[in-house]
Design goal:
With 89 residues, this protein is α+β, with helices and mostly antiparallel strands. Helix content is 49%, strand content 25%. It has a 3-stranded mixed β-sheet, covered by helices on one side. Helix 1 (4-33) runs antiparallel to helix 2. The longest helix is centred in the N-terminal third of the chain and has 30 residues, at 4-33. 16% of the residues are buried.
């Protein structure tokens, strides 16, 4: 019994969720292909949070590599990317 506007909004939200899920998966794969041991990505409200693991200390260069991957895969700006790192060894 939803209105046409409510149905359209639900369809658009579903499409956004699916798009974010695909971007999250692509980012995780690309980050891991760069040699990081673990990666979990969450995209929501034009922000991206990433938990990444590495066997050595995390550097500013690591952050730049990951941010470049994110920006290349979705419409999130550098300032809206948050990276949490942990050593996995």
């Amino acid at each position: 019994e939803a209105s046409q506007e409510e149905i359209q909004r639900a369809v658009e939200e579903s499409a956004d969720i699916a798009k974010n899920m695909l971007s999250e998966s692509n980012i995780e794969s690309l980050v891991q292909s760069k040699g990081y041991t673990d990666c979990v990505v969450f995209i929501q409200n034009e922000e991206c949070s990433i938990v990444v693991g590495k066997n050595t200390a995390f550097t500013a260069e690591d952050a730049a590599i990951i941010k470049d991957i994110v920006v290349g895969q979705c419409a999130v700006t550098y300032e809206n990317i948050k990276i949490v790192d942990h050593i996995t060894s």
